[in-house]
Amino acid sequence: MKLKTVVLFAFASIASTSLFAEPVKIWISSQQDKIYYDNMVRLYQRDVDPDFEAEVQAFGFREMPDKLAIAFKTQTNTPDIVQLDEVFFGMYLQGETPFVDITERVKAAGLDEAIMPQRLELFSQQGRVLGLPQSMSAVVLYYRRDMFEEFRLSPSEFKTWDDVVEIGEELAAQNQPFLAMDPTYFGMLLRQRGGHLFSETGEVLPDFELAVDTLEFLGELAEKRIGLMPDRSSIFDPVFFGGDVANNEIMAIMGADWYGLDMIQQFSSELEGEWGIMPLPVWTDDDGNANSVRTSTFAGQGLVIYKGSQLIDESWEFMKFVMTDKQANADRFLQGNSFPAYKPAFEDIRLLQPSPFFGYDAMGQILVDLAPEVPRVMMNPKRPMAVFMMREGMLSSPLYGEGNARAALERFKAQVESAGGPPPEN
Length: 426
Description:
Number of strands: 12
Radius of gyration: 23 Å
Number of helices: 18
Strand order of the largest sheet: 2-1-3-12-6
Distance between the termini: 65 Å
Largest sheet: 5 strands, mixed
Number of domains: 2
Helix content: 40-55%
CATH superfamily of the largest domain: Periplasmic binding protein-like II
């Protein structure tokens, strides 16, 4: 009887461990990504660990910081893995970060070489890796094929931003704006030119004269009616697609890979086949020689592990799988999420196929070609505030053809330098 009791007790303990173990809690910032991660959990169970359990919850993009703040403060219902936009990630870099330092794990897995260094750096601080980037987030120019045909234009004519101005003035004379404008363009173009919001040592706008020239250029586009500000001042508002895009009021939009995969395809589905993709026009020096890369970056999300998690090892193994598995990387792109920053995925033929939606342009191949040119982004604890200030319109007046770019940037620089904490939540 005693032996039987011991055996039964041991069996019950094993059953309890396997049947009632806590699932890995994964917080995701959109319903679209929740679908993807639910699929990834099933793929991980099939290919790696059939006993793995996870609970995936989706919150709104702006709701996520509020949820995290409450969970961290109350230590109630805390997540194990969190998907964070790189801007929100920066909010947690003041003082002791609440995320696990995965530097050694990343090196042991070879991810320090396999993931694009420009993107891995985005989720790092002082040489410590704190998260894994999901996307390349390379910026391209999305253009309307049908409108190009109507005005007898070719993408090959837009090699430089000088070309954009020259052709844009001809279009404006026919009451046709070329480029949709947005406050986020300032950061995109500054990075394309090699400039930064912060230096490695934390200086705000270290390339100040370059920043002034960039904002003045956007003002020039607005003043000459080459660029058009949307009704709600944002290319990220669905109303923009139902108005400016649907009414053929613009011919091109600058956006990251995920913008084309998600927003353009979701909100202008009726224009399938009428969109095309090309690299950004380059900037030139006084002699007309190219002196910039053909792309930039904007936003992008990554996965981090909460330092208080009781399932750090399990969380890491799942994260590593999602970032490195061939099928997982293909699904992230093919399901309309983003193009991966994991370099071995660049050789997957499924990611390089022509896209019917973009007139059979091969988005994946274009992005792979641009990958070596993707610029760095200097992470800084004050970066979230700087980005939010730009999005809320602090630098918008030149984009309406009004105000002084230098004065606007001087005010911006002074406010960021004097700020002591993260931006107010909204």
